[in-house]
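TOKENISE THE FOLD
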Amino acid sequence: GAIINEMIMHLLKEKPPCAIGFMHAWLAENAEAPGPVTRVPDVVFKTRVRDPAVPGPNPFRWQDRTTQEIFGGKKVVLFALPGAFTPTCTSNHLPRYEVLYDKFKAKGVSDIICLSVNDAFVMYQWGQHIGAKNVMLLPDGNGEFTRRMGMLVDKANKGFGMRSWRYSMLVDDGKIVKIFKEPEFGDNATVDPFVVSDADTMLA
């Protein structure tokens, strides 16, 4: 709890390479065991897919995708963040998963998914803007998946409304194997911690 958070913040402040390496190794060994939610929620995601048969300058159509389609029968790494186009998410959180994509694949991970409580249009434009090629951007527009994961928080103090808390998890055939949830979880948080849901910690 508080002692662990204090240790993490101290290591990040000092930032010697050995301390950062130790932190990633320690976090990997001490990932939170799944709590009440042991499997990913069964929901339907509203996505947009390119379809050449659609006329006009915007050749996309709506396509429902289920939890089973996305997580069934394979290993998936999912990381969730507060919002597309936001600074930390754009500069570090998503790009690092892109960089380490091949290393995740070598460990048997089939897909890496970035989830946010944003609609499909916003997630698509963010993916184009950031140049995401390996990470799948999954819109949880209604926040249903996030709510059932117990990760939905109110960010009204930032003008965001209801959003996802920042976390990452490894999922094997729908079962949550390990999860890294950022500290200080809660509504209208004045901080946005980014110390445990990063790609390096998940990969360690």
